[in-house]
Write a structure and sequence with these properties.
The protein is about 30% helix and about 20% strand. The chain has about 500 residues and is of the alpha+beta class. About 50% of the residues are buried. It contains 15 helices and 18 strands. A hairpin with a 5-residue loop joins strand 13 and strand 14. It is globular. It binds dihydroflavine-adenine dinucleotide. Dihydroflavine-adenine dinucleotide binds next to strand 3, helix 6 and strand 10.
Length: about 500
């Protein structure tokens, strides 16, 4: 209404003034009147579904190339009561970095993406606007035996990914991205810039898995790099129902979390057309072994002969080539890792944790669900845990899903623009599936992975204060008992709830 238009003008005036004060160019401020506003807005939107449902567009997009511009954005949005959303890679499953139910602005970190690597100390400072692809590329340019453990998709942003966990193909050996953060640069709700020492261990703990959003704007993370062998081995083996997929998947559940931690066998399941034109289930075993093929084969022969892996299925390569392999860029130049434009889609995703193997008849019911959706629309990913994940305490960082979990399930259903009118059908399908799966997965709480954000599991109130009880509905699923400490820290560092969204930690006092 009129008052929000009024606010908007005052806000813009405030912003320009603050920029002038710090001698900043105002060409990093985009309003809808600006010709590049739409392309900037859309360029890193990975999931088109939230954007297509959203009635609000950001009043302003700011693409800071200096911290003072972030401070200006915080100062002015606080002054005029406008919500501030931060976007790094734009891969949020519910689009929370670029949509909102109330008037908002976006601070888009794209220009703050420098990466500096110290090959003596094996550390790196990574600005949050960098993508995983840029990080992997830059490390590989510097050194063949250094790497980092994080996600598979190269356009995912460091800002959201690191602050929520970060699982990848080396996680059984090296854990999550967040496990390796050793320092950070953060701007708080008062516009103050902190490093680890000045923010204190509580706040530093919170941003390593508790989501950056609730606590401030993370400008950069310092991480410990990991040492890897010069040669790794990858394989991708598919089994259909005729090839005993059900029995092999069933068996996988007894092997995947216990096998040598240098080996991670991830499993993708899709309904596909078989060569005779009939529907079948394709079980795609996609794996990384940190070592040569001759070491891998005896391990597979002893622990998982049912898969029938042979040498011809395997390829040895440097680690950076395995990044291309898993991201679907096999055979292409490494430069594709520098391409920041995501392959956008309309999708809905959900997650679950499995602590007891699912019986064969359970798997068969799951195949029925997969066959209900169109071919190649729906996919399950079974991501094995175990290895070092079992050895890290549940409260080490806010990401709590450690020992006791065999694997995480990621469900996703996607559709095209033409089909978007039918999005309800797909969303109902995945919700029904999720309801069915309750019997096979973790209970009280039903755990979920924060980085696979799902607003179905609970939300804050849009207007007014969210109670501890209300936020507990989703909070315990993502963070288990770490949720209480996150609330306590939020209450200390951002009591007015400046940094907020539909699933941010509420600042209520528990003590
Ligand atoms: P985006 O910019 O949308 O931010 C996500 C959230 O973090 C938002 O709430 C945002 O406000 C907040 N935020 C972002 N930058 C911030 C900053 N600098 N300071 C404070 N808050 C900030 N996960 C995984 O573990 N392993 C994987 O292999 C994959 N693969 C994958 C593939 C694809 C295609 C998608 C869409 C997603 C994944 N993910 C994943 C999930 C991914 O880890 C998750 O979506 C991250 O939050 C994305 O981070 P972005 O910075 O890209 O998102």
């Amino acid at each position: 209404g009129a008052s929000s238009a009024h606010n908007k003008n005052d806000f813009l005036e405030c912003l320009n003034l603050q920029f002038q004060k710090s001698n900043s160019e105002s060409d990093s401020i985009y309003t809808p009147q600006n010709a590049s506003y739409s392309s900037i807005l859309q360029s890193s939107i990975q999931n088109l579904r939230p954007a297509s449902n959203s009635r609000q567009r950001p009043l302003v997009i700011i693409t800071p190339d200096h911290e003072s511009q972030i401070q200006a954005a915080i100062y002015c949005s606080k002054k005029y009561g406008i919500q501030l959303n931060v976007r790094s890679g734009g891969h949020d499953y519910e689009g929370l970095s670029y949509t909102s139910q109330t008037p908002f602005i976006i601070v888009d970190m794209r220009n703050l993406r420098s990466i500096s690597i110290d090959t003596e100390k094996n550390t790196a400072w990574v600005q949050t606007g960098a993508t995983l692809g840029e990080l992997y590329y830059t490390i590989a340019e510097k050194c063949k035996t250094l790497a980092f453990t994080a996600g598979v998709c190269s356009t995912v942003g460091v800002g959201g990914h690191f602050s929520g966990g970060g699982y990848g193909m080396m996680s059984r050996k090296h854990g999550f991205a967040a496990d390796h953060i050793i320092d950070a640069k953060l701007i708080d709700a008062n516009g103050q810039i902190h490093d680890r020492e000045s923010m204190g261990e509580d706040l530093f703990w919170a941003i390593r898995g508790g989501g950056g959003t609730s606590f401030g704007i993370v400008v950069a993370f310092k991480v410990k790099l990991i040492v890897i062998p010069e040669t790794v081995t990858v394989f991708n083996v598919t089994r259909t129902l005729d090839q005993n997929a059900t029995q092999i998947v069933h068996r996988w559940q007894y092997v995947a979390d216990k096998i040598d931690e240098n080996l991670l066998i991830r499993l993708f399941l899709r309904s596909i057309n078989s060569s005779n034109g009939k529907r079948t289930i394709g079980a795609f075993f996609t794996s990384l072994y940190l070592g040569p093929v001759d070491d891998l084969l005896p391990i597979m022969q002893e622990k998982f002969p049912e898969l029938g892996l042979v040498k011809e299925d395997c390829t040895e390569m440097p680690w950076i080539e395995s990044i291309l392999f898993f991201a679907g860029f096999q055979g292409q130049s490494r430069d594709v890792l520098l391409n920041r434009t995501p392959v956008s889609a309309y999708f809905k995703g959900k997650s679950d944790y499995v602590k007891q193997p699912i019986p064969e008849y359970g798997l068969e019911s799951i195949w029925k669900f997969l066959n209900e959706e169109d071919v190649n629309r729906a996919e399950f990913e079974f991501s094995p845990y175990g290895g070092i994940i079992d050895e890290i305490s549940e409260s080490e960082i806010p990401f709590p899903h450690r020992s006791g979990n065999i694997y995480m399930i990621h469900y996703v259903v996607s559709w095209s623009e033409e089909e978007n009118a039918e999005s309800k059908r797909h969303i109902n399908w995945i919700r029904k599936l999720y309801g069915f799966m309750a019997r096979y997965v973790s209970k009280s709480p039903r755990d979920a992975y924060f980085n696979y954000r799902d607003l179905d599991i609970g939300m804050n109130k849009i207007e007014g204060n969210t109670s501890y009880k209300q936020a507990s509905v989703w909070g315990f699923k993502y963070f288990n008992n770490n949720f209480r400490r996150l609330v306590h820290i939020k209450n200390k560092v951002d009591p007015t709830n400046f940094f907020r969204n539909e699933q941010s930690i509420p600042p209520v006092s528990l003590w």
